[in-house]
Amino acid sequence: MQTTTETESYRIVGTPRFGGILVVADHASNRVPGDIDLGIAPELMDEHIAIDIGVAEIAERMCARPGTAALLGNVSRLVCDTNRTVDDPAAIPETSDGRAIPGNVGIDREARLARFHHPFHDALTALLNEQPPQLTLILHSFTPQMATRPDETRPWHCGVLYDVDDRGARIATRLFEEEGLVVGDQEPYSGKIYNAAIERHVESEGRPYLYLEIRQDLISDEQGQAQWAERLIRVCNQVALEIA
Predict the structure, then answer these.
(1) Around 116, how many Cα atoms within 13 Å sit in the side-chain half-sphere?
(2) Checking DSSP bridges between strand 158-161 and strand 209-215, what pairing results, if any?
(3) Measured between alpha carbons, how far is 219 from 56 in angstroms, rounded to an integer?
(4) Looking at CB atoms within 10 Å, which of 14, 29, 87, 92 has the fewest?
(5) How far apart are CA 32 and CA 35, in angstroms?
(6) Each residue of 186-233: pLDDT tens digit?
(7) Cβ of 10: how many Cβ atoms within 10 Å?
(8) What is the per-residue burial (b if ≥16 Cβ within 10 Å, else e) of 99-134?
(9) How far apart are CA 50 and CA 66, in angstroms?
């Protein structure tokens, strides 16, 4: 039975352990608190603009193994995107992939950030300081096709992101490619741009990490989620060993 701690901003699944693996998935939920109205169609909350499809299920499966724990965001990225810095307008987006989010216009941004963004990052800081993992896996997923870029192809099975420290990315790329996967190097996003977690929590402290994006059509069902959870347990353990 997995241990779970839940707050409005985040969930902690599993038991964090010194020298273990910590999975961080800040876009793991599409939950919208009852007192917040985003003003968008309910069906959009199941799409990539609202949640990183598949990452919560992968993280929870990984946490079934001793020594692995996860910090999961507990609200939709449309409510508060904790993968953005507090001064980034996209931390509380007014548009996403061409969709207007009218409920985020004219709100008290500082109150929203204080309610969701700050507690999530405070919890991550505490986990990293109190039970330092051997490896932090920052886990995201990406849509095969953006609505605003219909002609853009995204052929990668997964992508590695990094800023300055590319150790985890290089090791993982080799391991994924040995399994026949197509790996994007800073694709479809760049860790030099989307680096709120990297800069604040890992690279600034010299902590080993792997920042990974998985294509959502590969992990939208239980079979894909189970396959990637098993793969990531193997890859993360090997990355941790080689970086140490």
Answers:
(1) 28
(2) antiparallel
(3) 10
(4) 87
(5) 8
(6) 998 888 887 778 888 999 889 999 999 999 999 999 999 999 999 999
(7) 26
(8) bebebbeeeeeeebbebbbebbbebbeebbeeebbb
(9) 30
Which among 139, 132, 126, 144 is positioned nearest to 60, based on CA atoms? Answer: 139
Band the pLDDT of 148: cuts 50, 70, 90.
low
Question: Residues 6 or more apart from 244 whose CB is under 8 A from it?
Answer: 134, 208
Rounded to 10°, the helix 222-243/55-62 angle is: 60
Closest CA to 180 of 145, 218, 233, 147: 218
Residue 121, token pair as written in the block: 């990052």
Give me the sheet containing 158-161, strands edge to edge: 4-6, 10-13, 68-73, 21-25, 135-142, 209-215, 158-161, 183-185
Domains of the chain: 4-243 (3.40.630.40)
Average pLDDT over residues 176-191: 94
The pLDDT-based confidence of 53 (bands split at 50, 70, 90) is very high
Tell whether omega for the bond before 150 is within 30 degrees of 0, i.e. cis. Answer: no
CA gap 240, 244 in Å, rounded: 6
Please state whether the predicted TM-score (pTM) of the whole model is above 0.85: yes
Alpha-carbon span 189 to 194, nearest angstrom: 7
Task: Report whether 23 contacts 62 (CB < 8 A).
Answer: yes
